[in-house]
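Fold these two proteins, one after the other.
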Amino acid sequence: MVIRGRAPLRVSFGGGGTDVEPFCVEQGGAIIGSTINKYAYCSIIPRDDDQITVHSLDFDMTVKYNAKENYVCDGRLDLVTAALRAMDIKQGCEVYLQCDAPAGSGLGTSSTVMVSLLTAMARWKGITLDNYAMADLAYGVERIDLGISGGYQDQYAATFGGFNFIEFHGRNNVVVNPLRIRRDIINELQYNLLLCYTGNIHVSANIIKDQVSNYKKPDAFQAMCEVKALSYAMKDELLKGNLHNFGRLLDYGWESKKRMSSKITNPQIDMLYDEAKKAGALGGKLLGAGGGGFLLVYCPYNVKHQVAHRLEAAGGQLMDWNFELRGAQSWICDEDRWDYRDIQVQMPNKEYTFHV
């Protein structure tokens, strides 16, 4: 038996950073975004002994534990260690982790890995958690237990999936508003967007700490308020299908977000963004906390090819993607069905055997 968990990565359109305390507690935060068809996976194979072996396929790393001993974080796959402890895993197993995007990509990878882990573990133990409870558990393990700096949006986006407008007022006071967007609007939005990998790997915790330290500075605080207001405007324009306005609001949001911390952008990112604008893009933003990862660019369909060419010529790497409307999922598969066996097919005049 293999238990699998899968959670989708996300793109944030507006409001990024307002989901981080203390701003969201004192002022209220708001995020608009969607999940995409790139995922974090967790596979669990139960064992009959106390040995737990975790394989990170992305980092080519293996860590071993004993289910009867205390789980101690030692800097090696601490996300897994904390999840095992939170779910009170007392049985041996093999765990395999894999993510479709690298760490530091700005797509919420670490939180999405956590959600996939907890989703698979809950399925294994027969525990039923609704989306709010799962997202809050993932937040608690990552932000509280491990002390990793960050906001709330990634855990909720990965758990709920789809297009959401999420309002934050601190822990246990998060409201997820699913957006009912017409399918033709979603299709057109995806057609007019590009995802470009900048090649920079960033440490989001350092940028978030700098942002928090700037919270009381007037210009940074005003920028956060503007970013929040823009998320409401983006929601309205997206629901109405005014996509070019939505694209221009992305540009306003990016200009405001850069004022929240000097670490959010760098010369290479600015150069890629400027090249996209020169080729006809209406707006865009760097995903995640900043400093690197994926650049999201909105461009009218008739100049999209020109923007793509300009970005690639400047060193960007375009990724093929689409929106994903489902959130975290889990399922069980039977390993015995993977065994190779002769396949026989009886036809009216003859029996065929296929040796696989």
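Now the second one:
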Amino acid sequence: MSAPDSTEQPLLVVIDPVARRVDGESVRIARDVLCGGAVAKICFPEGPQDVERALARRGRRRPVVIGDDRALLRVVHLLHQRRDLPEVPVSLVPVGALPAVSLARALGVPLGTVAASRAVLDGAERRLDALVDDAGGVVLGGLWIPGPGGLNRTPEATAAAEPNGSPETGIADVADVTEVTASEGGVGDHQSWWSPAARTARSALTLLTGPAARHQLPSCTRLRVEADGVLLVDLDEPVARVALCAVDGQAEVTVHTHSAELPSVARATRVSISGPSFHYRADNVLTGPVRTRTWSVREGAWRLVLPRG
């Protein structure tokens, strides 16, 4: 459901340092379009602390992120920590190539600089669900847990998993999302960015995992998965993959095992996963190892400005 427009509010434009380094020309174009259409304060943060200070002093300005998925996630997490996330509309102008902006694409944000900037000025807010974990994390698109053979960790992915890793580390080791088509539940190039196929987090999870991740299941791992206290799989049954996303106000968990031809799917408000140390990818960011984690769905947890229609 659409939220009231906020296009008349002044803007706080947060320009990620990685975006300035990767594609300075796109950053310049986005800044010119935004400043030409609204009263905007430009912020050039050098690190997360600068972003946090800018958000704390934003006043009535609504945040606009110029950068990749990581820059968006950083702002969302900071707003969540400040308990401002449900009431503050967020906008994004993606800068970077796939897969660094695959979450933006999955959420329905145009990847073109001018189109995304115009959407910031002329778009409409939409309330979207999210998953919040017991460690304070927020998942916008979806998460999945591969077995030990499914991580293929690169140095970049390892840095992304470290709690004190560089905020400028890009997303690595992600399936090619450009191959996803509308028939697979994704968004084809011929479709509008806010087409029906792109409206659910399930579609976002499909885009983020990509065809290779869906069709080449990794090695087995042992996990205990519970949905609202109901046991879906226990440690004695090897798991190939677990996927989780927020759909229509509920958490949808999909469990692939090698003993069953089809995955089991359940809906719940709270999903707990535990077992030997495991890693998981949330919005394409590698996290872990952890021994247990619980996610709860938050309906209408955040507001994203997207193109109209």
